[in-house]
């Protein structure tokens, strides 16, 4: 479909009503797009279902013309690795769009060797890759939305892995921020419960409890209910930074 024709469809709102109910908006790359932006894409979408264990795309037969948006379920994705003969195996979950990264990276629909297998029952929204590229050319907002999504993914991938050590650092730094000077020592007058500390630091209750217990075992802090006394602030700072 030519860009001018797509512009006409969007301008006239021919598919706007359909777009407002489209499940495309449930897919993460399109969450930032409004109904006008989705209108042209909705014209070519198709919803299909697979059972756990089904082969969605045989490895090596992905030609790039269709994108696979996961409405529900989990799939195993196999991609050729940089080293010849090797493969990278990942999982795609609800909201992911398989094939989008390859399409945006190449700027055209082309074979990429992807294989897709249903790990659970799947509902997939199929839509045309060429139509998405045309939509990017026809409407700057579509391109901007996908660019923001790609940037978010790049930033997330560039952050250090959320290992146990990183979780502990967040907890220790938060404890330092709660501390008040009380004579020669610092004190957290109302020590949060483990569930509260976990929520504040973005960790599990178990992570929060284990991190505090480790500090107590090392003699860096001690409980004095309802407070937490910091016996060695220098050691706590060293642990946090």
Automatic annotation (TrEMBL):
<dbReference type="InterPro" id="IPR036388">
    <property type="entry name" value="WH-like_DNA-bd_sf"/>
</dbReference>
<dbReference type="InterPro" id="IPR000595">
    <property type="entry name" value="cNMP-bd_dom"/>
</dbReference>
<protein>
    <submittedName>
        <fullName>Crp/Fnr family transcriptional regulator</fullName>
    </submittedName>
</protein>
<dbReference type="InterPro" id="IPR010916">
    <property type="entry name" value="TonB_box_CS"/>
</dbReference>
<dbReference type="InterPro" id="IPR018490">
    <property type="entry name" value="cNMP-bd_dom_sf"/>
</dbReference>
<dbReference type="InterPro" id="IPR014710">
    <property type="entry name" value="RmlC-like_jellyroll"/>
</dbReference>
<feature type="domain" description="Cyclic nucleotide-binding">
    <location>
        <begin position="29"/>
        <end position="128"/>
    </location>
</feature>
<dbReference type="Pfam" id="PF00027">
    <property type="entry name" value="cNMP_binding"/>
</dbReference>
<dbReference type="InterPro" id="IPR036390">
    <property type="entry name" value="WH_DNA-bd_sf"/>
</dbReference>
């Amino acid at each position: 479909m030519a860009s001018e024709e797509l512009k006409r469809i969007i301008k006239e709102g021919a598919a706007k009503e359909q777009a407002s109910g489209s499940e495309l908006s449930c897919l993460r790359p399109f969450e930032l797009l409004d109904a006008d932006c989705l209108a042209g894409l909705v014209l070519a979408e198709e919803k299909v279902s697979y059972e756990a264990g089904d082969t969605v795309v045989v490895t090596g037969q992905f030609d790039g013309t269709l994108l696979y948006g996961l409405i529900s379920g989990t799939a195993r994705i196999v991609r050729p690795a940089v080293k010849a003969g090797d493969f990278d195996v990942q999982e795609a979950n609800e909201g992911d769009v398989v094939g989008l990264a390859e399409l945006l990276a190449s700027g055209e629909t082309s074979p990429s060797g992807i294989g897709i297998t249903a790990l659970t029952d799947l509902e997939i929204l199929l839509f045309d890759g060429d139509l998405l590229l045309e939509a990017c050319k026809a409407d700057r907002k579509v391109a901007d939305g996908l660019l923001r999504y790609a940037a978010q993914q790049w930033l997330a991938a560039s952050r250090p892995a959320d290992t146990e050590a990183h979780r502990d650092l967040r907890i220790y730094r938060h404890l330092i921020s709660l501390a008040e000077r009380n004579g020669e020592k610092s004190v957290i007058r109302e020590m949060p419960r483990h569930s509260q500390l976990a929520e504040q630091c973005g960790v599990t209750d178990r992570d929060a409890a284990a991190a505090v217990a480790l500090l107590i075992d090392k003699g860096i802090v001690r409980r004095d209910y309802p407070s937490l006394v910091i016996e060695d602030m220098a050691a706590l700072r060293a642990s946090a930074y």
